[in-house]
Structure formats: C-alpha cells, structure tokens
C-alpha cells in the first residue's frame, strides 16, 4: 500500500513528538533528554513543513518561460518552508545552550544523571 | 516614511543592535558603560516620540493600500488576498505605547543599577537584558504570530542567560530545568501556530481573525480548538502560570535583583502579548474564557498561598508575582472591555511594583549577601530609606489605596461583579488580604525584629541610583493610583479592539 507522502510525514511528525515527550520525561541521562527534546522540535518542524507539501507540486519560483496557470496551480505553498528555517535555527541555539549548561554541570557533579543533578 | 513611523521598528532594532555590539565589547568597561547608558535612555524615550501606526517590514503593505492594485485583475481584487498582509506587520497603538514605555523604564533602571552596583560591569549581562527587552517589545508590537513565537524563544533564551550570569547557588540547575520544560512547551506552541497556518493559510493575526469572522474557514473546526489548546499551553509556560509557576518563581529567585525585576516584567508583558492574541483569535470559543478564568484563579491561589511558606525573600516575592499574574489573566478571562482594560492596567501596575520590590529587597542582598529571612533581622537600622520604600511597595502590591494596584484590583472586582461572577471578586479580595499579610510577615522578619548576632552587614552605602529608581517607581505607582485614567485611557482602545 502506498501511503500519501503528506500523511506519512504527519504520522512521522506525530511519532517523533510522542517519542520525544516520552524521552524528555522519563530518560535520566541529560544528553539523551536533550536528544529527546530535539525529537519534539523536529516533529514540530516536520509537521510545519509538511503543511506546504503539494503532491506533484513545483518549487515556488517563477522561472522565465513558465506558464502562469501552471505556476499558480502547481507551486507549493512557500510560507511553511520559510518559517521552518527560522524554527530550526532557534532549535539549534536552544540545544547549544542546553548542552553548554550540561557540560558545566558535568564538571560540577561528575555526572549527567538528571535525578542526581536536578533532583526528582 | 516619516521619522516617527520609522521609530516603530527602531524600538526593537536599536536594543538588539546595541546588545550585539556590547557583547563584542564586554572587556572594555568604559565603552560598555557609555553605550549602555545611551541605549537605556533610548528604551523609554523612543516609544514616547513614535507616532501611532503600522509598520510593514520590507514596505509590503496589503494590496488594498498599494497604488498598483488599481491595475490588478478582479481574480485578485475580488478575494481576501486584496486585504491580506504579505509582510511582517508591527502595530503601534496607545496601549503598546504605555506598556513599552513602562518596560523601558524598568529596563532603564535595571541597566543603571547593574552598572553602578557592579564595579566591572559586564557587557554580556547588559546584552542579555537588552535582548530580552527587545524581544518583549517585539512581542507587544507584532501582528504576526510566527514572529511572536520567534521573539518568545529569544526572550526565553535571554531569561536563561540572565539567570546563568547571576552566580547564585544552583542557578545552572534551575536554568536547565526551565530549558527542558521549554523544550517541550515551545514546540507545542509551534504546533499550535502550524495548525493555525494549516487551517487559515496565514500567520498574520489580523488576517486569521478576518478569515474566522468572515466565514473563509469553519470557525467550529476542531483543528482550531486544538490550536487554541496548544497555544494556551505555550502561553502558560512563557508566563509562568500553573503548572509552570514553580519553575518560573525559581528562575526569579536565581537571578540578580535587577535581573529578577526584568524577568517578572518579561513574564507580565508576555502574558499580555499572548493573552491579547488568544482573545482576538479564539474569543468566540466559550472554552477559552472559562479556561483563562480557571487557570488565573489557580495561579492567584497557588502563587499567593505558596508565598506564605517561603523563607527566601526572593522566592516569596516571586510567588507573589505569580499570584498577581492571576489577576491579569482573570481580566482577560472575563472578556469584557472593562475586564480586559482592568487586566491590562493590572499588568502595567504589577510590572512596576514587583520590579520595585525586587530592587528594594535587592538592597538587603547588597548589604548582607543573604536571602534567607530566618537569618535576617534589624535591617531597618541599616537601610531605613529602602525599608520605607519596600514597605510602601508591599502596601501597593496588596492593593491598598492610594496606590495604583488598588485602582486596577478595584476595577477587576467591579468587572467580575458586572459579569455576574461575585465568587471571583471574593477570591480576588481574599487573595489581596493574604498578600498583605504575607508581605507584612516578611517585612517584620527582615526589618523589624532584632538583628541576629551572627548577621554581618556591610558598611557600604546603597548606590544612590537604586534609591532614585525606587522613588521613581513609587512616584509612578502613586500617580497611577491617584489618576488611573492616565493609564486606562491608553489601554481602553486595545481592550475595545479585541473584544
């Protein structure tokens, strides 16, 4: 059975978010927790980018010689792509800060166990 | 474009640019001081001179406002595309003017005090403060929900940074906890925004509201309800309403007094920025008002009752601040013009009073390096002037006349009664009484009881700028208490436009 690409992307996004929330809540290793948080962010980004998907669509760039009707009917919606780029940058910055804090806490405690550093 | 209209984006651009510049210059103390002072003055001054209006980034106004639109085919002019906003839009009205001005005043004194209390001021600390102020200013101005999300994230990072530079015990642990929770809440907020985009095809709030109200999309769509829930969840995290009240108050307590004063102002104005959007877009869903009211009452009760049990005075003020956020949320939850005006007025008042309290109690930290109330006492003799100012600030916080919070809380009580919800009015009054009692207990412990033998008090005088800041904050409290219309006239327009 061939699943629709957009539907598959949405399911994957949902799965990433659920796995990420589970990991962020229940994993004890702080690095794994950060990876789980990245899963949630990636799930949200994939969800966002899949909104702009159009089956058989073309890139939203009007090239010379292109028929206006072909462009207007087939071009995919570009806004989610623009937004998701910003979101990826934000996610990367947040993750960098979190990892930086974990490095410092690891020096202080000699461990990256959430239960040891952050308490229950 | 005229100069005053150009000032609208400059309210965000100037602090961000100077922040980045200061970060590069953090070793050059004199240059850092000069630039910081100039930018700090610019923060409250620019909003005073900016004209009300709209700014379209890139100059892309809606087609209806564009001269070339006369030649466009009816295929476009006959649709909503003709009035939709293609660019990121900033809207500057009277309410934004007042709130950005107040944020600027809090920022001005936070920067000044940090410059004078620290011998070697850090460009990094000022950088973080300016980034936070710029982000919250952008959130107040932006009419674009994704732009709002971006600045919401920058503000969250700036808040974490402000806590990290404080060097207070366990600040790293608290910052990491806050970021982990943010790592869950922020994508959830983004999902809510993505759902809105998916349903309406738009991220401009005015266009989304237009689409819903004019039947371009089905307002009863369950996707909209889901988007509403997800956005409200993100809002709770950003503002520190329950279930995020404990981590938010911990963040306040792990920041320096100037940082804490700013952090609470960030929370208050984030609450307003997102609250306005939630009401604008989702007010037609009855669930929205009920949920806002419920969560606000929980915040009020939890925040203020948890403050009673605190022994750390910064934590105590932090919980009281969370409780006060409940009053603002209740104003939004009531959903009437009068209620929302009262909520906005309470936001303005709370941001000043709590900043005053953090800075006032900061003088205790300055003299003793101690925040545990059980180890303090007799501070009235050591800091008589700041004791008086702190006492007046506490009285103001509890809503005692003639200060400003009395007026806003009275308006909130009246709005609750007008909406047929006397229970909420009773809870508000009771919580104000508990706030007063909690504050007076802390004041007695720190200032009035005999000084413990082992308490060391530094001989250094409190910097004059700290006392000046407290006097000016108190003067604003008194002015708005005696003449509330000075604020409500500015805020009423926004309340009317979103209901």
Strand content of chain A: under 5%
Number of helices of chain B: 20
- The percent range for helix content of chain A is over 70%
Strand order of the largest sheet of chain B: 1-2
Describe the main β-sheet of chain B briefly: 2 strands, antiparallel
General form of chain B: globular
- H/E element order of chain B: HHEHEHHHHHHHHHHHHHHHHH
What's the short version?
The complex is a heterodimer of chains A (120) and B (499). Chain A is mainly α and 120 residues long.
Could you outline the blueprint of secondary structure elements for this entry?
The complex is a heterodimer of chains A (120) and B (499).
Chain A: H1 5-26, H2 30-51, H3 68-74, H4 79-109, H5 114-117
Helix pairs in contact in A: 1-2, 2-4
Chain B: H1 3-24, H2 29-49, E1 53-56, H3 74-77, E2 89-92, H4 94-117, H5 123-141, H6 145-164, H7 171-200, H8 205-213, H9 222-239, H10 245-253, H11 257-282, H12 286-308, H13 313-334, H14 337-368, H15 379-382, H16 384-397, H17 404-418, H18 422-448, H19 464-482, H20 485-498
Antiparallel strand pairs in B: 1-2
Write structural notes for this entry.
The complex is a heterodimer of chains A (120) and B (499). Chain A has 120 residues and is an all-alpha fold. Chain A has a single domain (5-117), classed as Helix Hairpins (Orthogonal Bundle), CATH 1.10.287. Helix content of chain A is 72%, strand content 0%. In chain A, helix 1 packs antiparallel against helix 2. Chain A is elongated and about 65 Å long. Chain B is built from 20 helices and 2 strands. Chain B has 499 residues and is mostly helical. The radius of gyration of chain B is 22 Å and the shape is globular. Chain B has helices spanning 3-24, 29-49, 74-77, 94-117, 123-141, 145-164, 171-200, 205-213, 222-239, 245-253, 257-282, 286-308, 313-334, 337-368, 379-382, 384-397, 404-418, 422-448, 464-482, 485-498; strands at residues 53-56, 89-92. Chain B has a domain at 285-499. Chain A binds chain B through residues 17, 20-21, 24, 30, 33-34, 37, 40-41, 43-45, 47-48, 51, 77, 79-80, 83, 86-87, 90, 93-94, 97-98, 101-102, 104-105, 108, 117-118, and chain B through 146, 150, 153-154, 156-157, 160-161, 164, 172-173, 175-177, 179-180, 182-184, 186-188, 190-191, 194, 197-198, 201, 203.
